Amino acid sequence: MAGKMNEPEIRRLVVEWHQRSRRERDPTSKFVFLWFCFNAWLAFESERDTDREMIDWLKGPDALKSRTRASFVEATASSTFQDHLNALAALSPIEGSGRRRKTPVLIASGDDFGAVVEGIYRIRCNLFHGGTSLGDVRDQKSVIVASRILEKWVGNLVAGR
User: Fold this and answer.
1) Cα–chain-centroid distance for residue 48?
2) Contacts of 69 (CB under 8 A, 6+ apart)
3) Which has fewest Cβ within 10 Å: 72, 79, 82, 97?
4) Local confidence pLDDT in tens for the 161 residues of the chain
């Protein structure tokens, strides 16, 4: 699709990818489909061009009243979601991979929104840029936990809550 999408179009796109993620049994593929949803919605809502700009926008004050932030806050009412956030924090620090080693992402607790977002983004970067090993138990746990967080978060976006 070329040009700027409107909310019904982006919602339709996100719903399609979300439905695909729900049918997926492979945790890595599930994460990828959920990332497509999250990234598409975030690009639409933030009106930013790069993933880094979108992530920075989401963590900043301009996104406080965004649908994306509201969906996350709504998800935190679930004790299961809180458990997933705490599991992500327990996997901290989340190391970077690739040529340029980045500072590890430290998540002090599941309540640290900015660190949680950075952690999920780091997991995505490691996966998309060749830093995740299918045979590494810690890598697989990271992908699974991030997927569970995105599943509830994106599910709230799709539901329009």
Assistant:
1) 16
2) 58, 63, 113
3) 79
4) 445 778 889 999 999 999 999 999 999 999 999 999 999 999 999 999 999 999 999 999 999 999 999 999 999 999 999 999 999 999 999 988 766 667 899 999 999 999 999 999 999 998 988 877 778 888 999 999 999 999 999 999 989 75
> Cα 157–149–133 angle (5° rounding)?
130
Angstrom distance (rounded) from CA 59 to CA 17: 24
* Total-model pTM: 0.92
Supply 37's token pair. 């949803």
Query: In the chain, which residue ranges form alpha helices assigned H by DSSP?
Result: 7-23, 27-46, 51-59, 67-75, 79-90, 113-128, 137-159
Distance CA 123, CA 137 (A): 14
Where are the domains positioned within the chain? 7-159
